[in-house]
Amino acid sequence: MENMEATNREIKSLFSEKKRVRNPFVPIGALITAGVLTAGLISFKKGNSELGQTLMRARVVTQGATVALMVGTAVYYGEKL
Length: 81
Description:
Elements (H helix, E strand, L loop, with lengths): L1 H13 L2 H4 L4 H21 L3 H32 L1
Helix pairs in contact: 3-4
């Protein structure tokens, strides 16, 4: 049991407070991106290429917004911590 506590302390020391700070909007953006991608692929499969193309463009926008959130969070918390 003592060995397990020592291991837990070592693991916790590897991860600083800085690495644990997260932006809750990033997973939401990733889910939205995945949803738009799935809808686009389904519309392509059904033969509606015009809607599929529109959804693929929307996916690029949502993916770009998610990446911008990730970078913005890294820059913001990188300077604060």
